[in-house]
Amino acid sequence: MTGRARQKGTKIPILDIPSLSNAYILPFFFTFIVLALYRSLRRLLLEERLDEDEDDDMLPLTYRSWTSLLIPLHICALALAHIVQHELDSDLDLELSEIPLEQCSHTLIRQEWRTLSDAHKQQYIDAVKCTQSLPQITTFEGVQSRFDDFQAVHIHTADSIHYVGHFLPWHRRFVKIYETTLRNDCGYRGAIPYWDWTLDVHNGSSILNSPVFDPTTGFGGDGVPGTFNISSLLSEAIIESSQIYLPSFVGCVQDGPFANFRVHLGPGKAIKEHCLMRGIDDEFTESLSRKAVEKALAQPTFEKFRVELEGGEDRPSEHGSGHLVIGGDLGNLYSSPADPLFFLHHANLDRLWWKWQTMDLRRRLTDISGKTLPFATPKHKTNVALDFMLKYDRLAASIPIKEIMDVREFPLCYVYE
Protein backbone atom coordinates (compact mmCIF):
# COMPACT_ATOMS: atom_id res chain seq x y z
CA MET A 1 0.00 0.00 0.00
CA THR A 2 1.28 3.48 -0.81
CA GLY A 3 1.87 6.23 1.73
CA ARG A 4 -0.49 8.76 0.19
CA ALA A 5 -2.76 10.57 2.59
CA ARG A 6 -6.41 9.63 2.53
CA GLN A 7 -8.84 12.50 2.07
CA LYS A 8 -11.29 12.91 4.92
CA GLY A 9 -14.75 11.53 4.21
CA THR A 10 -13.64 9.51 1.18
CA LYS A 11 -14.97 5.97 0.96
CA ILE A 12 -12.33 3.50 -0.16
CA PRO A 13 -12.36 -0.32 -0.40
CA ILE A 14 -10.44 -1.90 2.50
CA LEU A 15 -10.74 -5.18 4.43
CA ASP A 16 -12.54 -5.05 7.75
CA ILE A 17 -9.95 -7.44 9.22
CA PRO A 18 -6.69 -5.80 10.33
CA SER A 19 -3.68 -6.35 8.11
CA LEU A 20 -2.05 -8.68 10.65
CA SER A 21 -5.08 -10.94 10.54
CA ASN A 22 -5.04 -10.82 6.76
CA ALA A 23 -1.51 -12.23 6.78
CA TYR A 24 -1.95 -15.06 9.33
CA ILE A 25 -5.53 -15.79 10.41
CA LEU A 26 -7.03 -15.65 6.93
CA PRO A 27 -4.67 -18.34 5.47
CA PHE A 28 -5.47 -20.72 8.36
CA PHE A 29 -9.15 -20.09 7.79
CA PHE A 30 -8.80 -20.98 4.09
CA THR A 31 -6.72 -24.05 5.00
CA PHE A 32 -9.25 -25.55 7.35
CA ILE A 33 -12.11 -24.85 4.97
CA VAL A 34 -10.30 -26.78 2.24
CA LEU A 35 -9.42 -29.61 4.66
CA ALA A 36 -13.00 -29.86 5.86
CA LEU A 37 -14.25 -30.10 2.31
CA TYR A 38 -11.60 -32.69 1.51
CA ARG A 39 -12.48 -34.82 4.58
CA SER A 40 -16.19 -34.74 3.74
CA LEU A 41 -15.47 -35.85 0.21
CA ARG A 42 -13.13 -38.55 1.46
CA ARG A 43 -15.77 -39.97 3.81
CA LEU A 44 -18.32 -40.11 1.02
CA LEU A 45 -15.89 -41.99 -1.20
CA LEU A 46 -14.96 -44.35 1.65
CA GLU A 47 -18.54 -45.21 2.48
CA GLU A 48 -19.28 -45.94 -1.14
CA ARG A 49 -16.20 -48.15 -1.47
CA LEU A 50 -16.95 -50.07 1.74
CA ASP A 51 -20.43 -50.76 0.50
CA GLU A 52 -18.95 -52.30 -2.64
CA ASP A 53 -16.09 -54.49 -1.36
CA GLU A 54 -15.55 -53.67 2.32
CA ASP A 55 -11.88 -52.85 1.67
CA ASP A 56 -10.13 -52.49 5.07
CA ASP A 57 -7.29 -50.47 3.58
CA MET A 58 -9.62 -47.52 2.99
CA LEU A 59 -9.64 -45.81 6.37
CA PRO A 60 -10.62 -42.27 7.42
CA LEU A 61 -7.91 -39.63 7.39
CA THR A 62 -5.48 -40.07 10.26
CA TYR A 63 -3.75 -37.30 12.23
CA ARG A 64 -0.63 -37.87 10.15
CA SER A 65 -2.62 -37.46 6.94
CA TRP A 66 -4.01 -34.20 8.22
CA THR A 67 -0.58 -32.77 9.01
CA SER A 68 0.87 -33.86 5.70
CA LEU A 69 -1.76 -31.85 3.89
CA LEU A 70 -1.69 -28.84 6.20
CA ILE A 71 1.63 -27.32 5.12
CA PRO A 72 1.06 -27.22 1.32
CA LEU A 73 -2.52 -26.09 1.80
CA HIS A 74 -1.39 -23.31 4.14
CA ILE A 75 1.21 -22.15 1.61
CA CYS A 76 -1.47 -22.02 -1.08
CA ALA A 77 -3.75 -20.07 1.23
CA LEU A 78 -0.98 -17.58 2.00
CA ALA A 79 -0.48 -17.00 -1.71
CA LEU A 80 -4.21 -16.54 -2.22
CA ALA A 81 -4.43 -14.05 0.65
CA HIS A 82 -1.48 -12.11 -0.76
CA ILE A 83 -3.16 -11.91 -4.16
CA VAL A 84 -6.45 -10.72 -2.63
CA GLN A 85 -4.70 -8.08 -0.51
CA HIS A 86 -2.63 -6.89 -3.49
CA GLU A 87 -5.76 -6.41 -5.55
CA LEU A 88 -7.41 -4.46 -2.73
CA ASP A 89 -4.31 -2.28 -2.39
CA SER A 90 -4.31 -1.69 -6.14
CA ASP A 91 -7.94 -0.60 -6.00
CA LEU A 92 -7.09 1.70 -3.10
CA ASP A 93 -4.15 3.27 -4.95
CA LEU A 94 -6.24 3.78 -8.07
CA GLU A 95 -9.08 5.41 -6.22
CA LEU A 96 -6.80 7.67 -4.17
CA SER A 97 -4.97 8.75 -7.31
CA GLU A 98 -8.27 9.90 -8.77
CA ILE A 99 -9.10 12.10 -5.75
CA PRO A 100 -7.87 15.70 -6.17
CA LEU A 101 -5.81 17.00 -3.27
CA GLU A 102 -8.23 19.91 -2.90
CA GLN A 103 -11.65 20.40 -4.39
CA CYS A 104 -14.64 22.74 -4.21
CA SER A 105 -17.00 22.09 -1.31
CA HIS A 106 -19.64 24.08 -3.18
CA THR A 107 -19.96 26.45 -6.14
CA LEU A 108 -20.86 30.13 -5.77
CA ILE A 109 -23.09 31.80 -8.34
CA ARG A 110 -22.12 35.38 -9.17
CA GLN A 111 -25.06 37.57 -10.16
CA GLU A 112 -25.50 41.00 -11.70
CA TRP A 113 -26.03 43.71 -9.06
CA ARG A 114 -29.54 44.72 -10.14
CA THR A 115 -30.82 41.13 -9.87
CA LEU A 116 -30.05 40.92 -6.15
CA SER A 117 -32.76 41.54 -3.58
CA ASP A 118 -32.49 44.72 -1.51
CA ALA A 119 -31.64 42.58 1.52
CA HIS A 120 -28.85 40.83 -0.39
CA LYS A 121 -27.47 44.16 -1.56
CA GLN A 122 -27.42 45.45 2.01
CA GLN A 123 -25.61 42.33 3.21
CA TYR A 124 -22.93 42.90 0.60
CA ILE A 125 -22.53 46.59 1.49
CA ASP A 126 -22.28 45.65 5.17
CA ALA A 127 -19.54 43.12 4.37
CA VAL A 128 -17.56 45.74 2.41
CA LYS A 129 -17.78 48.10 5.38
CA CYS A 130 -16.64 45.24 7.60
CA THR A 131 -13.35 44.98 5.68
CA GLN A 132 -12.73 48.62 6.51
CA SER A 133 -12.60 47.68 10.19
CA LEU A 134 -10.65 44.44 9.92
CA PRO A 135 -6.98 44.58 10.99
CA GLN A 136 -4.38 44.97 8.28
CA ILE A 137 -2.18 42.03 7.22
CA THR A 138 0.28 43.83 4.92
CA THR A 139 3.05 46.17 5.98
CA PHE A 140 2.70 48.88 3.35
CA GLU A 141 2.93 52.47 4.54
CA GLY A 142 -0.42 54.12 5.23
CA VAL A 143 -2.43 50.90 5.52
CA GLN A 144 -4.91 50.85 8.42
CA SER A 145 -7.38 48.08 7.54
CA ARG A 146 -7.95 44.98 5.43
CA PHE A 147 -9.73 47.12 2.85
CA ASP A 148 -6.56 49.19 2.64
CA ASP A 149 -4.52 45.99 2.16
CA PHE A 150 -6.24 45.32 -1.15
CA GLN A 151 -5.70 48.86 -2.37
CA ALA A 152 -2.06 48.85 -1.27
CA VAL A 153 -1.27 45.56 -3.02
CA HIS A 154 -2.82 46.92 -6.21
CA ILE A 155 -0.90 50.19 -5.95
CA HIS A 156 2.44 48.45 -5.48
CA THR A 157 1.90 45.87 -8.27
CA ALA A 158 0.02 48.03 -10.79
CA ASP A 159 3.05 48.61 -13.01
CA SER A 160 3.53 44.86 -13.50
CA ILE A 161 -0.08 43.67 -13.86
CA HIS A 162 -1.45 46.01 -16.54
CA TYR A 163 -0.86 45.85 -20.29
CA VAL A 164 0.59 42.35 -19.85
CA GLY A 165 -0.53 38.80 -20.61
CA HIS A 166 -1.39 38.04 -16.97
CA PHE A 167 -3.65 41.09 -16.54
CA LEU A 168 -6.85 39.01 -16.55
CA PRO A 169 -5.52 36.05 -14.51
CA TRP A 170 -4.07 38.34 -11.82
CA HIS A 171 -7.31 40.25 -11.38
CA ARG A 172 -9.39 37.05 -11.47
CA ARG A 173 -7.58 35.79 -8.39
CA PHE A 174 -7.49 39.24 -6.77
CA VAL A 175 -11.29 39.50 -6.90
CA LYS A 176 -11.58 35.94 -5.57
CA ILE A 177 -9.34 36.75 -2.59
CA TYR A 178 -11.59 39.73 -1.84
CA GLU A 179 -14.69 37.55 -2.14
CA THR A 180 -13.18 35.01 0.26
CA THR A 181 -12.40 37.78 2.76
CA LEU A 182 -16.00 38.99 2.66
CA ARG A 183 -17.26 35.48 3.29
CA ASN A 184 -14.74 34.16 5.81
CA ASP A 185 -14.04 37.29 7.83
CA CYS A 186 -17.21 39.37 7.46
CA GLY A 187 -20.01 36.79 7.47
CA TYR A 188 -21.20 37.46 3.93
CA ARG A 189 -22.99 34.39 2.57
CA GLY A 190 -23.22 35.22 -1.12
CA ALA A 191 -20.86 35.57 -4.06
CA ILE A 192 -19.34 38.83 -5.21
CA PRO A 193 -21.76 40.54 -7.66
CA TYR A 194 -20.77 42.01 -11.00
CA TRP A 195 -21.84 45.16 -12.80
CA ASP A 196 -22.87 44.68 -16.43
CA TRP A 197 -22.47 48.23 -17.69
CA THR A 198 -23.84 47.31 -21.16
CA LEU A 199 -27.29 47.46 -19.53
CA ASP A 200 -26.79 51.13 -18.63
CA VAL A 201 -25.30 52.78 -21.72
CA HIS A 202 -28.12 52.60 -24.24
CA ASN A 203 -30.83 55.03 -25.38
CA GLY A 204 -28.70 58.06 -24.53
CA SER A 205 -29.32 57.66 -20.81
CA SER A 206 -26.60 58.75 -18.39
CA ILE A 207 -24.77 55.93 -16.70
CA LEU A 208 -25.49 57.73 -13.43
CA ASN A 209 -28.99 56.20 -13.67
CA SER A 210 -27.52 52.73 -13.15
CA PRO A 211 -28.76 50.91 -10.03
CA VAL A 212 -25.19 50.68 -8.74
CA PHE A 213 -25.30 54.44 -8.03
CA ASP A 214 -28.55 54.32 -6.08
CA PRO A 215 -28.00 56.07 -2.70
CA THR A 216 -30.22 53.54 -0.87
CA THR A 217 -29.65 50.19 -2.57
CA GLY A 218 -26.36 50.97 -4.31
CA PHE A 219 -22.96 52.56 -3.74
CA GLY A 220 -23.96 56.21 -3.80
CA GLY A 221 -23.73 58.67 -6.66
CA ASP A 222 -21.36 61.15 -8.22
CA GLY A 223 -18.79 63.35 -6.54
CA VAL A 224 -20.05 66.79 -5.58
CA PRO A 225 -18.11 69.66 -7.23
CA GLY A 226 -16.29 71.98 -4.88
CA THR A 227 -16.05 69.52 -2.00
CA PHE A 228 -12.40 68.69 -2.59
CA ASN A 229 -9.47 70.27 -4.43
CA ILE A 230 -7.08 67.52 -5.46
CA SER A 231 -4.56 69.93 -6.95
CA SER A 232 -3.90 71.35 -3.50
CA LEU A 233 -3.30 67.88 -2.11
CA LEU A 234 -0.74 66.59 -4.60
CA SER A 235 2.47 67.84 -6.15
CA GLU A 236 2.96 68.05 -9.89
CA ALA A 237 5.51 65.23 -9.68
CA ILE A 238 3.09 62.75 -8.02
CA ILE A 239 0.29 63.75 -10.39
CA GLU A 240 2.50 62.93 -13.35
CA SER A 241 4.06 59.73 -11.99
CA SER A 242 0.67 58.43 -10.85
CA GLN A 243 -1.02 59.17 -14.19
CA ILE A 244 -3.76 61.12 -12.39
CA TYR A 245 -6.48 62.45 -14.68
CA LEU A 246 -7.47 65.59 -12.80
CA PRO A 247 -10.88 66.18 -14.48
CA SER A 248 -12.12 62.86 -13.10
CA PHE A 249 -11.60 63.94 -9.46
CA VAL A 250 -14.71 66.13 -9.33
CA GLY A 251 -15.46 65.89 -5.63
CA CYS A 252 -16.48 63.79 -2.63
CA VAL A 253 -19.31 61.27 -2.73
CA GLN A 254 -21.87 62.69 -0.30
CA ASP A 255 -24.75 60.24 -0.48
CA GLY A 256 -25.16 56.51 -0.08
CA PRO A 257 -23.35 54.08 2.26
CA PHE A 258 -19.85 55.49 1.59
CA ALA A 259 -20.63 59.18 2.01
CA ASN A 260 -18.39 59.47 5.06
CA PHE A 261 -15.79 56.94 4.00
CA ARG A 262 -12.16 58.03 4.45
CA VAL A 263 -9.61 56.68 1.97
CA HIS A 264 -6.16 56.26 3.50
CA LEU A 265 -4.13 55.65 0.34
CA GLY A 266 -3.89 57.48 -2.96
CA PRO A 267 -4.78 59.30 -5.06
CA GLY A 268 -2.42 57.40 -7.31
CA LYS A 269 0.82 56.51 -5.55
CA ALA A 270 0.37 59.20 -2.92
CA ILE A 271 -0.43 58.44 0.72
CA LYS A 272 -2.96 61.13 1.54
CA GLU A 273 -6.13 60.62 3.53
CA HIS A 274 -9.13 61.90 1.59
CA CYS A 275 -12.80 61.31 0.88
CA LEU A 276 -14.06 58.82 -1.69
CA MET A 277 -14.05 60.86 -4.89
CA ARG A 278 -15.84 60.38 -8.21
CA GLY A 279 -16.39 62.27 -11.42
CA ILE A 280 -18.87 60.41 -13.62
CA ASP A 281 -18.28 61.09 -17.31
CA ASP A 282 -20.60 59.65 -20.00
CA GLU A 283 -18.00 60.31 -22.71
CA PHE A 284 -16.45 56.95 -21.85
CA THR A 285 -19.61 54.91 -22.36
CA GLU A 286 -18.95 54.07 -26.02
CA SER A 287 -16.52 51.29 -25.13
CA LEU A 288 -19.01 49.85 -22.64
CA SER A 289 -21.63 49.02 -25.27
CA ARG A 290 -22.81 45.60 -26.38
CA LYS A 291 -21.18 46.21 -29.73
CA ALA A 292 -17.80 46.72 -28.09
CA VAL A 293 -18.23 43.56 -26.01
CA GLU A 294 -19.24 41.51 -29.06
CA LYS A 295 -16.12 42.69 -30.84
CA ALA A 296 -13.94 41.51 -27.97
CA LEU A 297 -15.69 38.14 -27.73
CA ALA A 298 -15.16 37.58 -31.46
CA GLN A 299 -11.36 37.57 -31.11
CA PRO A 300 -9.79 34.18 -32.00
CA THR A 301 -6.90 34.10 -29.51
CA PHE A 302 -6.43 35.01 -25.87
CA GLU A 303 -3.92 37.77 -26.56
CA LYS A 304 -6.16 39.44 -29.13
CA PHE A 305 -9.10 39.15 -26.75
CA ARG A 306 -7.06 40.52 -23.84
CA VAL A 307 -5.81 43.51 -25.83
CA GLU A 308 -9.35 44.26 -27.07
CA LEU A 309 -10.75 44.09 -23.53
CA GLU A 310 -7.95 45.81 -21.65
CA GLY A 311 -6.89 48.27 -24.30
CA GLY A 312 -3.76 50.39 -23.99
CA GLU A 313 -2.65 53.70 -22.57
CA ASP A 314 -3.95 55.61 -25.60
CA ARG A 315 -6.74 53.30 -26.66
CA PRO A 316 -10.24 53.17 -25.11
CA SER A 317 -11.50 49.79 -23.98
CA GLU A 318 -14.01 48.11 -21.71
CA HIS A 319 -11.46 47.96 -18.91
CA GLY A 320 -10.25 51.54 -19.02
CA SER A 321 -13.67 53.01 -19.80
CA GLY A 322 -15.25 51.17 -16.88
CA HIS A 323 -12.76 52.94 -14.61
CA LEU A 324 -12.88 56.39 -16.19
CA VAL A 325 -16.65 56.54 -16.58
CA ILE A 326 -16.82 56.69 -12.76
CA GLY A 327 -13.62 58.65 -12.25
CA GLY A 328 -12.02 59.68 -8.99
CA ASP A 329 -9.80 57.04 -7.44
CA LEU A 330 -11.51 54.36 -9.55
CA GLY A 331 -10.31 56.22 -12.63
CA ASN A 332 -6.68 55.86 -11.61
CA LEU A 333 -4.39 52.99 -12.61
CA TYR A 334 -2.95 52.63 -9.10
CA SER A 335 -5.44 53.58 -6.38
CA SER A 336 -8.63 52.33 -8.09
CA PRO A 337 -9.58 49.72 -5.40
CA ALA A 338 -10.38 52.66 -3.09
CA ASP A 339 -13.84 52.62 -4.67
CA PRO A 340 -15.82 49.46 -3.77
CA LEU A 341 -17.19 49.47 -7.33
CA PHE A 342 -13.73 48.35 -8.48
CA PHE A 343 -14.56 44.75 -7.61
CA LEU A 344 -17.92 44.75 -9.41
CA HIS A 345 -16.25 46.16 -12.52
CA HIS A 346 -13.47 43.58 -12.51
CA ALA A 347 -15.89 40.77 -11.75
CA ASN A 348 -17.66 41.74 -14.98
CA LEU A 349 -14.40 41.73 -16.93
CA ASP A 350 -13.72 38.28 -15.51
CA ARG A 351 -17.22 37.20 -16.55
CA LEU A 352 -16.47 38.28 -20.11
CA TRP A 353 -13.19 36.37 -20.09
CA TRP A 354 -15.00 33.24 -18.84
CA LYS A 355 -17.67 33.73 -21.49
CA TRP A 356 -14.94 33.93 -24.15
CA GLN A 357 -13.34 30.79 -22.71
CA THR A 358 -16.58 28.80 -22.82
CA MET A 359 -16.98 29.53 -26.52
CA ASP A 360 -14.17 26.98 -27.11
CA LEU A 361 -13.60 25.62 -23.63
CA ARG A 362 -11.33 22.67 -24.41
CA ARG A 363 -8.76 24.84 -26.16
CA ARG A 364 -9.19 28.09 -24.23
CA LEU A 365 -8.69 26.59 -20.78
CA THR A 366 -5.00 26.50 -21.71
CA ASP A 367 -4.84 29.53 -24.01
CA ILE A 368 -2.63 32.12 -22.33
CA SER A 369 -0.03 34.44 -23.85
CA GLY A 370 1.28 37.99 -23.87
CA LYS A 371 4.34 39.75 -22.53
CA THR A 372 5.38 39.55 -18.89
CA LEU A 373 6.55 43.17 -18.70
CA PRO A 374 4.38 46.04 -19.98
CA PHE A 375 7.00 48.00 -21.86
CA ALA A 376 9.54 45.33 -22.72
CA THR A 377 11.32 45.76 -26.04
CA PRO A 378 11.08 42.91 -28.56
CA LYS A 379 14.66 41.96 -27.72
CA HIS A 380 13.86 41.52 -24.01
CA LYS A 381 10.31 40.32 -24.37
CA THR A 382 9.22 37.09 -22.68
CA ASN A 383 5.79 35.53 -22.93
CA VAL A 384 3.44 34.55 -20.15
CA ALA A 385 2.89 30.80 -19.76
CA LEU A 386 0.62 28.63 -17.62
CA ASP A 387 3.29 28.21 -14.96
CA PHE A 388 3.77 31.98 -14.56
CA MET A 389 3.35 32.84 -10.86
CA LEU A 390 0.79 35.41 -9.71
CA LYS A 391 1.81 37.27 -6.54
CA TYR A 392 -0.33 39.07 -3.95
CA ASP A 393 2.07 39.97 -1.14
CA ARG A 394 0.50 38.86 2.17
CA LEU A 395 -3.07 38.75 0.91
CA ALA A 396 -2.65 35.21 -0.38
CA ALA A 397 -0.04 32.69 -1.48
CA SER A 398 1.44 32.95 -4.95
CA ILE A 399 -0.18 30.69 -7.51
CA PRO A 400 0.53 29.66 -11.12
CA ILE A 401 -1.85 30.83 -13.82
CA LYS A 402 -2.81 27.25 -14.68
CA GLU A 403 -4.54 26.94 -11.28
CA ILE A 404 -7.08 29.68 -12.04
CA MET A 405 -7.91 29.06 -15.70
CA ASP A 406 -11.16 27.26 -14.86
CA VAL A 407 -13.49 29.23 -12.56
CA ARG A 408 -15.44 26.08 -11.70
CA GLU A 409 -12.44 24.37 -10.12
CA PHE A 410 -10.56 24.88 -6.86
CA PRO A 411 -9.48 27.42 -5.66
CA LEU A 412 -12.06 29.58 -7.50
CA CYS A 413 -15.26 27.53 -7.28
CA TYR A 414 -17.80 29.86 -8.88
CA VAL A 415 -19.85 30.39 -12.02
CA TYR A 416 -21.69 33.36 -13.51
CA GLU A 417 -25.44 33.65 -13.84
Structure characteristics:
417 residues; mainly alpha; di-copper center containing domain from catechol oxidase; 2 domains; 3-stranded antiparallel β-sheet; two-stranded parallel sheet; globular; disordered N terminus
Q: Brief overview, please?
A:
Helices cover 41% and strands 5% of the residues.
Structure description:
One of its GO terms (molecular function) is metal ion binding. Residues 162-179, 339-350 form the Tyrosinase copper-binding domain. The chain crosses the membrane at residues 21-41. It is a single chain. The protein is mainly α and 417 residues long. It has two domains: 19-97, no CATH class; 108-416, Di-copper center containing domain from catechol oxidase (di-copper center containing domain from catechol oxidase, Orthogonal Bundle), CATH 1.10.1280. The chain has eleven helices and nine strands. The chain has helices at residues 19-53, 63-97, 118-131, 146-161, 167-186, 236-241, 290-297, 302-310, 318-324, 341-358, 361-364, and strands spanning 108-110, 223-225, 251-253, 262-263, 274-275, 277-278, 389-390, 399-400, 414-416. The protein has a three-stranded antiparallel β-sheet with strand order 2-3-6, with no helix packed on it. The protein has a two-stranded parallel sheet with strand order 1-9. Helix 3 crosses helix 5 (167-186). It is globular. The two termini are 44 Å apart.
